[in-house]
Each structure stands twice: as C-alpha cells, then as structure tokens.
Backbone:
C-alpha cells in the first residue's frame, strides 16, 4: 500500500507531499487543481509511461530541469524525468534498465481517455495489449522487442532495389515464428479477460462484453500467410501483415461496440475491462494492484455506482478523483481519506 507520495516540479506542483495515506484516498477539487496529475505520477512510477502524453518532457514544471516522483510503499520508488533521460530507483539503488523498474509498483488505472479501447484506433488497442502484458510478463516484452527489430530489418530490405531472396526468406521465417509467440500470448490474455468479464458484467448489470482478436494472418500457418503476402509486401515495400497490424474489437451483446455503444456504454465497458485486468494481474502475479480511478463516478448511474463500490471496498488500495464529494457514496466516504485540492494562485 502507498503510504506517501512526494512530487517535485511535476506538472503544476513545485513541491507536493501526501502522507499517512489510507487504503482509500479521494482527491476532491475543481478542474485544473492537479488531481489527475497525482494519478498520472503513480501510473508513471508503475509503467514508465503517461496516460496523457507521449512526450514526458511536458510534465516537467516550467523553468525546471527535471521532475521527481517519490513513492513510499512496500519499497521506496523514485522516478526522475529530465528532457534527455529517465532514471528509476528502488530503495535508493538505481535500476540499470528501465524495463526492470516498471511493473514493480502494480496499478490499474481507469481514465476518461480509456474510451479509446472501444472507439480508438488499432494502434490504441495494440498499445493496451502490449503495455499490460509486458508489465506482467517480461518474456513477452523481450519477444515483442525482437519482433520489432526483425520487422525493421525486413522493411529495410523490402525498400532495396536489389533484394536478396535468401535473406528475405530467413527474415520471413524468423518474423513468422515471433508473430506466433506474440499472437499466442495475446490470445491467452484476451481469453482470460473474457472469462473474468462474465462475472463483472453481471455485477455491473450491463450487456455481455467480449474482446475479439483480429489477426491479419492465419494463426494456424503464419509462415504461409507471410509467403502469400510477399508479392504485396514487395510492391508496397513494407510488411503488410503481422502483430504490428493486428487489433481487437469489443462486442456488446454480440454487436461491435465501436459502432453501436453510446458514450456512456463505452465508458462502462472500459471500467469493466479495467476491473477484469485487475483480477487477472492478481491471479497471475499474486500482487494486489492499486486502483486509480479518474472521474469514474461521472460515467455511472446510481445502480452501477453501488456495484462499483463493492470492487473498491475489496481493493488493496484505491485513489479516486472527483470534482465533488457529493458524487461519492457514503459507504465509501466513511472510510476514506479525503484530500481537498485547491487551485494554485499564479
């Protein structure tokens, strides 16, 4: 459980310390008071990435050289972000490889931006798969990196005027082997999420939710798929099938949620998927992820709020942001540490 958070030159905070934290922490205040930034800092310390930007230099407070996130939990975690580098520390010892730093502090975050799981691009959906699987399976991350390296080599070869067919065959065979490994791991992940979602959708009184993986090749003979697509690849000078082209769709009672779900339904789907992810992590790693819920109650009606309360109460620890504590059920408020966030005077 996180007992203390310290931020230095992070977003709008020059110095911020939150300590003596409870299993349930509610961050309440108007917009632009830094509530979401605190969740972002926790997410960064867990994943090495921000859910709000791909350019981490933008989180550094203006006129500062770097941002520092200090988290006290089962161990002490420090993440230092400058414009040029990222450095992680565990118990004051620098972690040489960032991939060995991320995933130690386990969190699951819901944010309004997660609607991209339903309405977003293929790239958004692949990022979700790769991020979440990599955090709990370092072998998957290594396999994915090797796949990307071979993909880059193959694409570079396809751009050449005089292509060595033997070398192309070697790369094609290699990329097909890594494609199958990544496909199998993604399918394992999705299948278990779907099993967990059956119970969650009953609890939330929502439509049946199911993730359907869409591959660009035949998983039963990946090499043959690459061979059949080779003529097109040579013409386009790029690899047109593979894990870098795959996606998943989310079905709601058998219908494509991207097309048929309202915004409210889409947000509820995202909440359900994140709750399923939390249980999956618990099963696979024996870790208890910390729930980060950004403006979650704005997406739910009263009956579904009461269903969500059960999941929050059964969580190891949860951080919730809200613009008004009036949105928070009394059952949660009575056990919560409520931190009022005030707008900084300029």
Residues:
């Amino acid at each position: 459980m996180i007992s203390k958070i310290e931020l230095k030159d992070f977003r709008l905070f020059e110095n911020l310390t939150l300590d003596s934290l409870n299993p349930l922490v509610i961050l309440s205040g108007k917009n632009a008071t830094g509530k979401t930034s605190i969740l972002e800092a926790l997410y960064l310390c867990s994943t090495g990435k921000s859910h709000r930007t791909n350019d981490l230099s933008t989180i550094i407070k203006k006129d500062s050289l770097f941002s520092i996130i200090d988290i006290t939990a089962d161990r002490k975690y420090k993440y230092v972000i400058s414009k040029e580098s990222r450095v992680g520390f565990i118990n004051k010892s620098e972690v040489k490889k960032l991939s060995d730093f991320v995933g130690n502090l386990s969190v699951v975050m819901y944010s309004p931006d997660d609607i991209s799981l339903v309405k977003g691009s293929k790239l958004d959906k692949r990022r979700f798969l790769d991020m979440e699987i990599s955090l709990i399976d370092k072998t998957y991350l290594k396999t994915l990196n090797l796949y990307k390296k071979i993909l880059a080599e193959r694409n570079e070869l396809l751009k050449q005027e005089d292509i060595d067919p033997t070398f192309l065959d070697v790369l094609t065979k290699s990329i097909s082997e890594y494609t199958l490994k990544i496909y199998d791991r993604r399918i394992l992940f999705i299948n278990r999420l779907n099993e967990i979602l059956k119970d969650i959708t009953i609890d939330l009184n929502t439509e049946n939710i199911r993730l359907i993986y869409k591959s660009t090749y035949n998983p039963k003979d990946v090499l043959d798929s690459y061979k059949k697509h080779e003529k097109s690849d040579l013409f386009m000078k790029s690899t047109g099938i593979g894990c870098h082209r795959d996606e998943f769709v989310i079905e709601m009672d058998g219908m494509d949620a991207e097309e048929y779900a309202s915004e409210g339904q889409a947000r509820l789907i995202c909440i359900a998927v994140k709750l399923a992810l939390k249980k999956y992590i618990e099963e696979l790693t024996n870790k208890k992820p910390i729930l980060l819920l950004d403006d979650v109650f704005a997406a739910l009606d009263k009956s579904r709020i009461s269903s969500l309360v059960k999941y929050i109460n059964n969580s190891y620890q949860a951080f919730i942001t809200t613009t008004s504590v009036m949105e928070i059920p009394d059952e949660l408020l009575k056990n919560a540490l409520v931190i009022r966030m005030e707008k900084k005077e300029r």
In short: Residues 45 and 231 are 45 Å apart (CA to CA). DSSP finds twelve helices and 14 strands in the chain. The mean pLDDT is 94.
